Structures are given as C-alpha cells and as structure tokens.
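Sanity check

After download, print the first record. It should look like this:
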Amino acid sequence: NARHLDKKWGADYEKMGAKQFYESIFDCHRESIENKIRKFIKEFE
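Expected structure tokens:
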C-alpha cells in the first residue's frame, strides 16, 4: 500500500512541480495547526 501511495504522490509531484507540491503539503499542515490552536484558545475562553 505504501508503494501505491508513493506512485500517487509521485504523480501529483510530477503534475504540480516541486514548489507547488511542497506548498500544498505545508498549507494542509498549517491549517491543522491553526485549528488546534483555535480549539486550545476556545477551551480557555
């Protein structure tokens, strides 16, 4: 299954080019961090 994922990521990587590929991963990561921070803040309001 990991091999299948590698193929899928590889295809996306080829399509987007390196810069966009890494930016899209970073955006997803950043959003999840922001959501965690918001939840954390809400608990203390």
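If your output differs, re-run the checksum step. Summary of this record's structure: The chain is about 90% helix and 0% strand.
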